[in-house]
Amino acid sequence: MTKEEIAIKLKDKFGSELEILETNQPEAYVYISPARYHELCQFLKEAPEFDFDYLFQLGGVHYPEDRFELVLCFSSHERRHNMILKVKLDKDNPQIVTTSDIWMAANWYEREAAELFGIKFVGHPDPRHLLLDDDWDSGYPLRKGWTGPDFISMPEK
Questions:
Q1: Which residues, 6+ apart, have CB-to-CB distance to 106 below 8 Å?
Q2: What is the mean pLDDT of the chain?
Q3: Which of 87, 97, 134, 150 is 20 to 30 A from 22 (CA-CA)?
Q4: pLDDT reported for residue 153
């Protein structure tokens, strides 16, 4: 399925809750509202025409003045197509429901995003620290402007 076909089918099902990004990339790029995020993810994995069985990346992006974004990249081995899904999250309370019940790989990626960006994954089955010390309380190292322990600033030109 082409990226245009993917976008049209998703727009038909999710309507105004879905925004299609026009890019020169070979994958379909879409934004979904947080309210329909889990439903879309479930649909993408289970619908035979999509069959997105492989989540190969999930990460956060921090836009300090505006928002956080969650970005998921997945593909279908059987259908041989890829897609990028983005969700805009609140800048003061970034949280979204977990997708670890859909893709097992989300478990690790969500723990990483929670630790390093402070994004809360509601319903996550194992929210323990993954990379930082268990007693870490020095903020979120991948947020813009973080200057906690071990921070090394870029040298002046």
A1: 55, 58, 98, 99, 100
A2: 95
A3: 97
A4: 85
